[in-house]
Amino acid sequence: MNIKRLLWKYFLPAFTGVVVNALYNIVDRIFIGRGVDALALSGLSAVFPLMLIIFAFGMLVAIGANVRISINMGKKDYKRAEWVLGNAVTLGIIISALLTLFGYIYRYPLLKMFGAGQGALPYALEYFEYILFANVFATIGFILNNACRAEGNPKIAMYSLFISAGTNTILDPIFIFGFDMGVKGAAIATIISQFILCIWVVAHFYSKRSVLKLHLANLKLNGQIIYYILTIGFAPFSMQLAASAVQAVLNTQLIRYGGELAVGAMGIINSVAQLLVMSIIAINMASQPIIGFNFGAKQYARVRDTLITCIWAATSIAIGGFLLTQLFPGAIVRIFNNDNPELFELGRKGLRIFTLFFPIVGFQIITGNYYQSIGKAGIAAFLSLLRQVIILIPMLYILPPFTQLEGVWFANPISDLLAGIISALFLVKALKKLKGGTEKFN
């Protein structure tokens, strides 16, 4: 199929799916911000980096398995693709169970470390304790939902997230307002929706609609397959861990220079940034099976066409997001909380600064995904860590002593700019290698 048509076929359900999936946290923040209070919003912001850690382990398995599934399907080795799928499920169950146990034992120090102040801590604890016990369902649902795309069923993946996030959106106001359950109600709504997602995708891989099947024999772990999954999945895993580390540093610096309400404002900014970045990640999700399949089939010209098309699309989304946050920051912040003027001003100003260089973020994310999709895990991990750790964390400590709270906000756009320059060098190298479609990759 024509590359643009093929990308559109995969992008539309992926975009719809990730936007709907992003609504999990965004809807929770909107209802908690309006139905409880600003400190509850700060508490949820402290839970957010811990949720990123849990999500990182899901990505470690899901993305690593997807790349291997796509490459094996490109080689027509469907038996091995099913073996990868089964091992991914077992690995996901083991990792998520261990994370749940660890998180529950150390929940108090973890939440304090990630920025939960005295006023926000009770809200953070209440939400986090409930979310932990849905971790296994959330992880398996995420792994198998991504596998739907890898096997060539992107619409099934989209429907899965529609059902799950739709359930969460409906139940949130019922539990928070109708049953007056506050933060606990938001957490319970999320648990129910994640359980439904898990059941739905497991059923898919036992149905006639699936290309690959879940076999009990394939659930037995194989050392080589686990190694392949983990090495490829390390790049998105490190990126998510980096996001969590950055969020922890951000929260502590925000409390130091702006107080607990600044953490709440960061929660609003994160919701908006997450929605924008996830839109670009949808392009990655659409391109990954196409790049992986064609790379496995040695169709390098099609890989190059896919990469170039994705860069244009991602840059367009990034520019659109930049314009929205620069022109309408106040209207965006009011969606989350409209009765606290201090929170409004912090969020409005922070959002504008935070997204200052967002137009150059799109091609950075696409470049990292390209190297990940062709199995170059080391380069992919470096490019992912560059923007979120190697440059950003030092900036969060260097700038604030001179410019106070504004320094915390400005650390992100400076990191975007410097990482963009370095990513561009890797992108040029990749395009040169792919030019002509005949170069061998070792």
UniProtKB/TrEMBL annotation:
It is found in: Cell membrane. GO terms for molecular function: antiporter activity; xenobiotic transmembrane transporter activity. The keyword Transport applies. Keywords: Antibiotic resistance, Cell membrane, Membrane, Transmembrane, Transmembrane helix, Transport. The chain crosses the membrane at residues 7-27, 39-63, 84-107, 127-144, 156-179, 185-206, 226-250, 262-286, 307-333, 353-371, 378-398, 410-431. One of its GO terms (biological process) is response to antibiotic. It comes from Odoribacter laneus YIT 12061. The keyword Repeat does not apply. This is Multidrug export protein MepA. Belongs to the multi antimicrobial extrusion (MATE) (TC 2.A.66.1) family. MepA subfamily.
